[in-house]
């Protein structure tokens, strides 16, 4: 059973009650089927009340769920023959970003994504999915390779942000991010991005200058974390919930603002409830987008991307 | 749904019917240097382009003063003067804050862009003004930079940007973040057309501005002691639980770590930029001869 979030408490309590009753009737000669059916009906009601009306702060919690599927989970379900490629060729290999080549329904593609750890040990190795400059430079190297060999680029975005640290500053975190923004605009191959968890500021955008950007229903994409915004705006990090609402950071908000092309539905309660099913939802959007974009000429691909970013906010 | 994106007419920025008043100068008779504490005549300080005559401290410049310090007298032609920010997120109090900064600075937004000449050589220039919302980048700042780059492309002249910014503008949320992409995508066109972009980072250039156009110069310069960096010092100290060196994220620190081409004293700024412009003009003409 997955780890439950605080707002899911009514669901958990009802589910426990039902399980209890079922266990009870197993070894006793009492018929409680009517009660159980009634409770199951009630459970469905409660579930839809909660899950179909998620508030921004609840979506933030789902986006950050420890068991939320990561880039590597989706790669496993969406692509075949994935070969991970390492290193930026200047300094090192950053495990906070994974990248490589694979087939997508027979079409060679390059895939790049932020990679959080799935447990503490992995999180230390992957720096909680917060890249250093070498991560962004590796991503750029792989994207140039994709462009050279005419492979579409798919990016999966899932980071709290680029790592704020001394070494990162010394090696040019700003320049690494900025360079990706500029160079991604130059590619003549189609690029598709999907925010699968948290899209944290410049560290997310550095994989986000793509022809088409989608977000999973319970993911977020923002200029700053709700905690950071609360600290700056109200000098109080505990106001994060209020900030999450004010800052408009959820997938439906971003669609409304014209920043993304679409929202990908999620398994009820969040992607972590069923990775395989979630991968299928992503797959159907990805396929449609790939079919459309591969029809465009190289010039059209580039112009479309330019036009799109040119217009944002105006 | 994708096509909808292009058909939607969003009114996030509006153009007012009247222009606002020109900048009013702050007229104290004496000024104290925050670094060496020397008290000097403001008039004297102004004559030295607001550099302390004792310790070389570079005071912050208003955008107008900056333009006057590098652009030939009478050659400046401002672009997109009347582009005004809206409040796309309906952020509480944002309009009031904008109005108060407009009043205070006499500017409509945190940046001035325009055509001008440096010793007779034509350029397009953008200058940010940290008095206005810490020159944070919202939609209008991003749009004005993009349009300035497009003007440089049309005129086929170099683009020069004096950055000074606290980063993205919180009150415009993710739309501010997207201005990083907007400006960088425009610079890619300039790059492709082989038109030079000279970026000068002044105090302070941080966050989303340093992580987009400001770092993308063919030449990346900075003023002495300017604070330049991606993440704030306090955040880094909290993250790594370690004291940072005193010169951390100064122009000199960046130069030492290979992130800048040169740190340029304000008194040499115009002559250095002009020399580079002359070299570009010369090689451009030579390129023309070679291909003809």
UniProtKB/TrEMBL annotation, chain A:
What protein is this chain from? Acetyl-coenzyme A carboxylase carboxyl transferase subunit alpha
The family classification in the record reads: Belongs to the AccA family.
Function (record text):
Component of the acetyl coenzyme A carboxylase (ACC) complex. First, biotin carboxylase catalyzes the carboxylation of biotin on its carrier protein (BCCP) and then the CO(2) group is transferred by the carboxyltransferase to acetyl-CoA to form malonyl-CoA.
Q: In which pathway does it act?
A: Lipid metabolism; malonyl-CoA biosynthesis; malonyl-CoA from acetyl-CoA: step 1/1
Q: Which organism is the protein's source?
A: Geomicrobium sediminis
Q: InterPro entries under this entry?
A: Acetyl_CoA_COase_a_su, ClpP/crotonase-like_dom_sf, COA_CT_C
Gene3D superfamilies reported in the protein's UniProt record: 2-enoyl-CoA Hydratase, Chain A, domain 1 (3.90.226.10)
**PROSITE patterns in alphabetical order:** COA_CT_CTER (PS50989)
Q: What is its EC number?
A: 2.1.3.15
Q: Please name the GO terms that the record assigns under molecular function.
A: acetyl-CoA carboxylase activity; transferase activity
Reaction equations catalysed: N(6)-carboxybiotinyl-L-lysyl-[protein] + acetyl-CoA = N(6)-biotinyl-L-lysyl-[protein] + malonyl-CoA
Q: How does it assemble?
A: Acetyl-CoA carboxylase is a heterohexamer composed of biotin carboxyl carrier protein (AccB), biotin carboxylase (AccC) and two subunits each of ACCase subunit alpha (AccA) and ACCase subunit beta (AccD).
Q: Tell me where in this chain the CoA carboxyltransferase C-terminal domain is found.
A: 38-292
Query: Which UniProt keywords are listed?
Result: ATP-binding, Cytoplasm, Fatty acid biosynthesis, Fatty acid metabolism, Ligase, Lipid biosynthesis, Lipid metabolism, Nucleotide-binding, Transferase
What top-level branch of life does the organism fall under? Answer: Bacteria
State the Pfam families in the record. ACCA
Name where it's found. Cytoplasm
From TrEMBL, chain B:
Q: What does this protein do?
A: Component of the acetyl coenzyme A carboxylase (ACC) complex. Biotin carboxylase (BC) catalyzes the carboxylation of biotin on its carrier protein (BCCP) and then the CO(2) group is transferred by the transcarboxylase to acetyl-CoA to form malonyl-CoA.
What's the cofactor? Zn(2+)
Principal localisation: cytoplasm
Q: What is this protein called?
A: Acetyl-coenzyme A carboxylase carboxyl transferase subunit beta
**Which gene is the coding source of this polypeptide chain?**
accD
Q: Where does Zn(2+) bind?
A: 33, 36, 52, 55
Assigned protein family:
Belongs to the AccD/PCCB family.
Listed A to Z, the keywords are: ATP-binding, Cytoplasm, Fatty acid biosynthesis, Fatty acid metabolism, Ligase, Lipid biosynthesis, Lipid metabolism, Metal-binding, Nucleotide-binding, Transferase, Zinc, Zinc-finger
Task: Provide the protein's localization.
Answer: Cytoplasm
Can you name one GO molecular function term for this protein?
Answer: acetyl-CoA carboxylase activity
Q: What is its EC number?
A: 2.1.3.15
Q: Where are the zinc fingers (C4-type)?
A: 33-55
InterPro entries from the entry?
AcCoA_carboxyl_beta, Acetyl_CoA_COase_Trfase_b_su, ClpP/crotonase-like_dom_sf, COA_CT_N, Znf-ACC
Q: How is the cofactor bound?
A: Binds 1 zinc ion per subunit.
Fetch the SUPFAM superfamilies from UniProt.
ClpP/crotonase
Catalysed conversion reaction: N(6)-carboxybiotinyl-L-lysyl-[protein] + acetyl-CoA = N(6)-biotinyl-L-lysyl-[protein] + malonyl-CoA
Q: Which residues form the CoA carboxyltransferase N-terminal domain?
A: 29-292
Q: What pathway is it annotated to? A: Lipid metabolism; malonyl-CoA biosynthesis; malonyl-CoA from acetyl-CoA: step 1/1
Q: How the protein assembles, per its UniProt entry?
A: Acetyl-CoA carboxylase is a heterohexamer composed of biotin carboxyl carrier protein (AccB), biotin carboxylase (AccC) and two subunits each of ACCase subunit alpha (AccA) and ACCase subunit beta (AccD).
Indicate whether ATP-binding appears among the record's keywords. Answer: yes
Give the first-level EC class, as a single word. transferase
Q: Supply the source organism for this entry.
A: Geomicrobium sediminis
């Amino acid at each position: 059973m997955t780890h439950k979030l605080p707002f899911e408490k009514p669901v958990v309590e009802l589910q426990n009650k039902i399980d209890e009753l079922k266990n009870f009737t197993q070894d006793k000669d009492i018929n409680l089927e009517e009660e159980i059916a009634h409770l199951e009906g009630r459970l469905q009601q409660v579930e839809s009340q909660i899950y179909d009306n998620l508030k921004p702060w609840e979506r933030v919690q789902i986006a950050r769920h420890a068991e939320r599927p990561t880039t590597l989970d989706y790669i496993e379900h969406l692509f075949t023959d994935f070969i991970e490629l390492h290193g930026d060729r200047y300094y090192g290999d950053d495990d906070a970003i994974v990248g490589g080549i694979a087939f997508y329904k027979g079409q060679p593609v390059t895939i790049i994504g932020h990679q959080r750890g799935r447990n503490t040990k992995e999180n230390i190795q992957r720096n909680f999915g917060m890249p250093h400059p070498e991560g962004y430079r590796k991503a750029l190297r792989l994207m140039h390779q994709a462009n050279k060999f005419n492979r579409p680029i798919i990016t999966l975005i899932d980071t709290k942000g680029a790592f704020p640290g001394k070494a990162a500053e010394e090696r040019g975190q700003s320049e690494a991010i900025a360079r990706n923004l500029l160079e991604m605009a130059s590619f003549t191959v189609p690029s598709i991005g999907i925010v699968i968890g948290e899209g944290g500021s410049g560290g997310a955008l550095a994989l986000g200058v793509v022809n088409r950007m989608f977000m999973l229903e319970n993911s977020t994409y923002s200029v700053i974390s709700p905690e950071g915004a609360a600290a700056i705006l109200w000098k109080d990090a505990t106001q994060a919930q209020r900030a999450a609402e004010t800052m408009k950071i959820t997938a439906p908000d971003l669609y409304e603002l014209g920043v993304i092309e679409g929202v990908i539905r999620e398994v009820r309660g969040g992607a972590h409830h069923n990775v395989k099913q979630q991968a299928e939802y992503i797959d159907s959007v990805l396929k449609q987008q790939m079919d459309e974009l591969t029809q465009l000429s190289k010039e059209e691909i580039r112009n479309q991307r330019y036009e799109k970013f040119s217009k944002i906010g105006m | 749904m994708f096509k909808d994106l292009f058909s939607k007419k969003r009114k996030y920025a509006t153009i007012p019917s009247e222009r606002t008043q020109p900048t009013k100068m702050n007229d104290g008779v004496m000024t104290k240097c925050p670094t060496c504490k020397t008290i000097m005549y403001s008039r004297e300080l102004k004559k030295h382009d607001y550099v302390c005559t004792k310790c070389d401290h570079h005071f912050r410049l208003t955008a107008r003063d900056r333009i006057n310090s590098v652009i030939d007298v009478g050659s400046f032609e401002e672009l997109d003067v009347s582009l005004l920010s809206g409040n796309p997120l309906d952020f509480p109090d944002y309009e009031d804050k904008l109005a108060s900064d407009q009043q205070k600075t006499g500017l409509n937004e945190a940046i001035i862009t325009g055509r001008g000449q440096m010793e007779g050589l034509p350029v397009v220039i953008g200058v940010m003004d940290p008095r206005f919302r810490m020159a944070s980048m919202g939609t209008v700042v991003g749009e004005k930079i993009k349009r300035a780059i497009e003007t440089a492309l049309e005129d086929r002249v170099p683009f020069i940007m004096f950055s000074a910014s606290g980063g993205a503008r919180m009150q415009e949320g993710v739309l501010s973040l997207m201005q990083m992409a907007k400006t960088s995508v425009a610079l890619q066109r300039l790059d492709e057309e082989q038109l030079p972009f000279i970026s000068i980072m002044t105090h302070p250039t941080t966050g989303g501005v340093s992580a987009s156009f400001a770092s993308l110069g063919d030449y990346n310069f900075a003023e002495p002691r300017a604070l330049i960096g991606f993440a704030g010092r306090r955040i880094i100290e909290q993250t790594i639980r370690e004291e940072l060196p005193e010169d951390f994220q100064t122009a000199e620190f960046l130069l030492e770590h290979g992130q800048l081409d040169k740190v340029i004293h304000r008194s040499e700024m115009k002559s250095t930029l002009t020399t580079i412009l002359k070299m570009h003009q010369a090689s451009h003409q030579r390129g023309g001869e070679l291909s003809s």
